[in-house]
Amino acid sequence: MTHDNSRELYDRALSVLAGGVNSSVRATQPYPAFVERGDGGHIIDVDGNRYIDYIMGYGPLLLGHDMPDRVQAAVQQYSAEGPMYGAPTEVEIELAEFITRHVPSVEMLRFVNSGTEATVSAVRLARAVTGRDKIVVMEGGYHGAQESTLVEGSGTHTQPSSPGIPDSFADHTIAVPFNDFEAASEVFEAHGEDIAAVLTEPILGNYGIVYPEEGYHDHLRELTENHGSLLIFDEVITGFRVGGLQCAQGKFDIEPDITTFAKIIGGGFPVGAIGGRSDLIEQFTPAGDVFQSGTFSGHPVTMAAGLETLRYAADNDVYDHVNTLGEQLRAGLTDICADQAPDYTVVGTDSMFKVVFTRDGGATGGEDGDHCAAGCRQRPSCPRYEACPKNAADIKAAETERWVRLFRTGMREEGVLLPANQFESQFVCGAHTEEDIEQTLEAYKEVL
Ligand SMILES: *Cc1c(COP(=O)(O)O)cnc(C)c1O
Questions:
Q1: How many CA atoms lie within 13 A of 447 on its CB side?
Q2: Which of 19, 90, 136, 408 has the highest Cβ tally under 10 A?
Q3: pTM above 0.70, yes or no
């Protein structure tokens, strides 16, 4: 496998693009594979190398790289008629109707252009309707490049995780470890009156994939309800992926007050959305007075691509396909790890998967034979329960450098393209095949 053309493009890119890329995770070691084109579940790079792709745009590409005919036809029609107007179109209503029909907690939506925009507006809305400033987030949770949630530290001792953000933003943000019932209770005991909302991903999807412990979401739901705070589910990554059309909140049977969406609902084009009960969402301007606006919001080409993608998924058992392959992959990886890397933990659900390079991950109790067979489910009866990662600190303690410097590059040489680091989720898409899965498992066997 040669990478001369990618190397040359990266050299050029470094002169005119900061770090050679337009989103930081794309700057993979030693340099990124520049893409020539996609083909189903594969990517072909500018040196002609073909990879099985599990980056899938970092989440948006449920169907893979080939748009089904109806998606392609819609995209072409809407771009040909005039890409956008600054006036409303019917297709915006249609996508909103599709989402509200499938996600019970969502009665009304506001479309925006990215997940970041969605979480910014959701936080503003929560603060406005509660008249409170504090936001509770999960350590290691990701809500885009927004000032209020780019924090490090713990509890009320948070500070901005990037230069350029005034400390005063972090003063209003409280961070708790995911899956820690007690920490959430304590924070509400101390600050309940000041907390506008808990903002969390239903599954930590940007930090190793951490599955919630049984009852954790119910606990958050109860705490927020008892203290007059809102529960915001950030379903930017899980929306229309985990739990299929009902999203992760359906899978876990929780009704958040507000939900943020992005990624899949744009069918591969830039998108975001804030959804929830009408009495909340109607507080946005012009219905209410919480300012929210965007030149490109509800872009017709995006709306059409998202709508036809979701319709296609609903009509063609796409979730069955990707979840079955996901299960096969996680089960295969679980066997390989048991054999070759017993400390490592296979995580993920539905079409998400990852092997986290945990240290000391061996069995510590529980009954042998009761292992999570296809991805960690945080079951107390699993022999690995004590050792499997439950929060961001556990993921952070894993062998990140080995993942980045040896494992990922090794997999790339085997023709399997994985994300930049061990924090980012990997995705099975509608175009992947059983053959892809088998080839992928062989590659893991070789490189792990
Ligand atoms: C990707 C992601 C975001 C940010 O979305 P962008 O479209 O990249 O701004 C926010 N929250 C979660 C959970 C995400 O996975």
A1: 26
A2: 136
A3: yes
Ligand 1 center from residue 435 Cα (angstroms): 31
Could you tell me whether strands 173-176 and 50-53 are parallel, antiparallel, or unpaired per DSSP bridges? unpaired
Is residue 134 part of the annotated active site? The answer reads no
- Predicted confidence (pLDDT) per residue in 33-42, tens digit: 999 999 999 9
Strand 173-176 with 352-356, pairing: unpaired
263 is catalytic: yes
Annotated catalytic, 10? no
Residue 143 Cβ contacting ligand 1 at under 6 Å: yes
Cα–Cα nearest to 119, from 92, 142, 139: 142
What are the pLDDT digits (tens) for 383-422? Answer: 889 889 999 999 999 999 999 999 999 999 999 999 999 9
The model's confidence at residue 366, banded by pLDDT at 50, 70 and 90, is: low
Ligand 1 and 200: CB distance under 6 A? no
Atom of ligand 1 nearest to the CA of 114: 7
DSSP 101: H
- Delineate the domains of the chain, giving CATH numbers in brackets: 4-66+318-447 (3.90.1150.10), 69-315 (3.40.640.10)
For the CA of 237, the nearest atom of ligand 1: 15
Classify 286 as helix, strand or coil.
coil
pLDDT of residue 363: 63
Contact 331, 324 (CB under 8 A): no
Q: If you compute the radius of gyration of the chain from its CA atoms, what whole number of angstroms results?
A: 21
The helix/strand/coil state of 130 is: helix
Under the banding of pLDDT at 50, 70 and 90, the label for residue 360 is confident
Pocket flag, ligand 1, residue 261 (CB < 6 Å): no
